[in-house]
Design brief:
- This protein is an all-alpha fold and 207 residues long.
- It is 87% helix and 0% strand.
- Helix 1 runs antiparallel to helix 4.
- It starts with a helix and ends in an 11-residue tail after the last helix.
């Protein structure tokens, strides 16, 4: 082959190889950059998902906490009003003048009726607890509210007995016992609510 032609051919081949190498290098560099961008995007998406989950959990905790506190406060209002009615009845003595006895009896009846009105509002708040969940909180709210029924009944029986002047120390004992048992159910509700609103607690994983 002519030396000039051979030199020209070698130059062409060298240029082609150089161009191919440059192209391959650029492609590899581009793929690396693309892969890094994909990894960065995936990392950002992961962080965004974690933030969304954290915000959701925080919002759920706050919403549940508000529902539980409202229920517990209104429960205490019902329980306290019934207890006050029992105090009025406990202040009645057989030796009391009729007008004083009647005044205490009427005061106790008014308080009992007030407690019934508060109970209706408590039932609405219990529905909110049902909606907020989790299931164990719905059960705890139902148990706490149900325990008040016994206290209502004990105070009402005592009230009826005073209507006929047939009250006995047993009436006072039953009312006190029902009130104490009801308060125990409130404590169960409060302990359960603490678990339900604790970050990463068992309650938050139920839904």
């Amino acid at each position: 082959m002519d030396s000039g032609l051979a030199g020209l051919l070698g130059g062409v081949i060298g240029a082609a190889v150089g161009a191919l190498g440059a192209t391959a290098s650029a492609w590899i560099t581009g793929r690396k950059a693309e892969k890094q961008a994909e990894l960065q995007s995936a990392a950002l998406m992961g962080q965004a998902r974690l933030q969304i989950e954290a915000d959701r959990a925080r919002s759920l905790r706050e919403s549940r906490k508000a529902a539980y506190v409202a229920f517990a406060e209104h429960w205490s209002l019902v329980h306290g009003t019934l207890s006050e009615a029992a105090v009025k009845l406990g202040g009645i003595e057989a030796s009391d003048p009729p007008e004083e006895r009647e005044e205490r009896r009427q005061a106790a009846r008014r308080l009992w009726n007030e407690a019934r009105a508060h109970q209706r509002a408590l039932n609405r708040l219990m529905s909110v607890v049902y909606v907020e969940g989790p299931d164990q909180m719905a059960h705890a709210a139902q148990a706490a509210s149900g325990a008040l029924v016994s206290q209502f009944g004990a105070v009402l029986d005592w009230l009826h007995a005073t209507d006929h002047a047939t009250e006995t120390p047993q009436h006072a004992s039953e009312a006190a016992g029902a009130g104490s048992e009801a308060y125990g159910e409130l404590l169960v509700f409060l302990y359960a609510s603490a678990d339900a609103v604790t970050p990463d607690g068992p309650g938050l994983r139920d839904r």
